[in-house]
From TrEMBL:
One of its GO terms (molecular function) is helicase activity. Residues 33-204 form the Helicase ATP-binding domain. Residues 230-381 form the Helicase C-terminal domain. Residues 2-30 form the DEAD-box RNA helicase Q domain. It holds the Pfam family Helicase_C. This is DEAD/DEAH box helicase. The keyword Nucleotide-binding applies. It comes from Pontibacter rugosus. A motif (Q motif) lies at residues 2-30. InterPro entries: DbpA/CsdA_RNA-bd_dom (IPR005580), DEAD/DEAH_box_helicase_dom (IPR011545), DEAD/DEAH_RhlB (IPR044742), DEAD_box_RNA_helicase (IPR050079), Helicase_ATP-bd (IPR014001), Helicase_C-like (IPR001650), Nucleotide-bd_a/b_plait_sf (IPR012677), P-loop_NTPase (IPR027417).
Length: 458
């Protein structure tokens, strides 16, 4: 079996991979990384969850020079969620590389913060096409040193109508550059983009069909008007922590989340009309376990990266097979197992039979599903998330927050949940029973010698 060490990666990157528990590359990584380290252009067809961010990200990190304060690598992605995810993954891989700056630019993010970041440019910039071209038009963004360029989820970039922005960005890049393109599908438009943008590319492929054993598919035949009650019954019968329920419309996310909340589930809605701040907050609550269930539109099917996400539920069937696979691919990632449940009426069940890549392992009988507890509502989250008005720019670290919670609020380290440090804000999950005391004590104390406002996140 090939290991990351066999791929001739640097010790700094190997150490980061070891810290993350990664030992062996996925098929797409094993195929792509050697070509990219050699400097070849690469076009890859890779499904969600195949490990493509590391496939292009590790070679980017190997080839940039941290001593040069200029944009050397550009990663173009279709959505702000994916921009944040890719930046985070790259930062994890680069943890042991000193002086390396990685930034993400996207709509809904502060222009001022992004422009300040360009005063001392990042070596790697991840961004959405609209925001990147906005900075170009303002003459704030200099791409003449970007010798490595990634078009990630190229099919989605074209589907969202970014052809003109991509042309503008390509024109601002140096003529001599390494081009990398990844796409879940190879449509005519994607093939044309490859022909126009890449030079003699190496082609690599790792589709969902190459890893069929990671995900178990179960179906439930249910009429449309029974689906929400059937969803409650299913969730009461499984370990529902870290579950994503997919629906097709924005309003449905709110309605279903509210329906689940009535039964005691800690559910949140995620859709495209939420303000960026609300979307970020929702994702924080879901990642740290305060919200156990996320009800989402296809917005979340791409760019949603949650550790150990085990369960996907299609409450409503998407319109085509590709969307179904993208949704389902959020689980069973990086060699882990996952379960997908699909609620289908008779017409939808017939439609699924036409999809070549989709096989239902078993159809469950809803009437045979039994509640674990006949009278009590579903178990609610036992965690509460706290917001701290300081972050990375204030030099706060998870260790500082843990230390303050132990010293001031009397918590044990094992009581404290996931901590997220952002540029100007931090979030920490604590036991619900200890949350009020923690807020009171931290507001009256200092963290790393400075007072911060601490409040509940609802």
């Amino acid at each position: 079996m090939t290991t990351f060490r066999d791929l001739q990666l640097s010790n700094a990157i190997l150490q980061s991979l070891e810290d993350l528990g990664y030992t062996s590359p996925t098929p797409i990584q094993e195929q792509a990384i050697p070509h990219l380290l050699e400097g070849s252009d690469v076009a890859g067809q890779a499904e969600t969850g195949s490990g493509k961010t590391a496939a292009f990200g590790l070679p980017l990190l190997e080839r940039v020079n941290p001593e040069l304060q200029q944009i050397q690598a550009l990663v173009i992605v279709p959505t702000r969620e994916l921009a944040v995810q890719v930046r985070q993954e790259l930062k994890q891989f680069a943890k042991h590389i000193p002086n390396l700056k990685i930034s993400a630019f996207y709509g809904g993010h502060s222009y001022r913060i992004e422009e300040d970041s360009l005063v001392h440019p990042p070596q790697i910039l991840v961004g959405t096409p609209g925001r990147l071209t906005d900075h170009l038009s303002r003459r704030k963004l200099d791409l003449k040193h970007a010798k490595q360029v990634v078009l990630d989820e190229a099919d989605k970039l074209l589907e969202m109508g970014f052809e003109e922005e991509i042309d503008t960005l390509m024109a601002a890049l140096p003529r001599e550059r390494q081009m990398i393109l990844f796409s879940a599908t190879m449509s005519a438009g994607v093939k044309e983009l490859i022909a126009d943008s890449l030079k003699a590319p190496e082609f690599v492929q790792a589709t969902a069909s190459s890893v069929p054993d990671r995900i178990s598919y179960s179906g439930l035949k249910v009429q449309d008007n029974e689906k929400r009650d059937a969803l409650v019954k299913l969730l009461e019968n499984i370990n529902h922590a870290g579950t994503v329920v997919f629906v097709n419309a924005r309003l449905t996310t709110e309605e279903v989340a509210h329906h689940l909340q009535k039964y005691g589930f800690a559910a949140k809605a995620l859709h495209g009309k939420l303000e960026q701040r609300e979307r970020d907050k929702t994702m924080t609550l879901f990642r740290n376990g305060t919200a156990a269930i996320l009800v989402a539109t296809d917005l979340a099917a791409r760019g949603l990266d949650i550790d150990k996400l085990e369960t996907i539920i299609h409450l409503e069937l998407p319109y085509d097979e590709a969307a179904y696979l993208h949704r389902s691919g959020r689980t069973g990632r990086a060699g882990r197992s996952g379960t997908v449940y699909t609620f289908a009426n008779q017409r939808e069940a017939q439609k699924m039979e036409q999809w070549r890549e989709v096989q239902v392992n078993e159809w469950l009988d809803l009437n045979k599903l039994q509640k674990h507890k006949n009278t009590a509502p579903a178990e609610v989250s036992v965690l509460t998330t706290l917001h701290i008005s300081g972050g990375r720019k204030d030099k706060l670290s998870p260790r500082d927050i843990v230390g303050a919670l132990i010293a001031e609020a009397g918590l044990k380290a094992t009581d404290i949940g996931k901590i997220e440090i952002q540029d100007f804000h931090s979030f920490v999950a604590v036991p619900d029973a200890a949350a009020s005391r923690a807020v009171e004590k931290l507001n009256g104390a200092k963290i790393k010698g400075k007072k911060y406002k601490v409040s509940f996140v609802r």
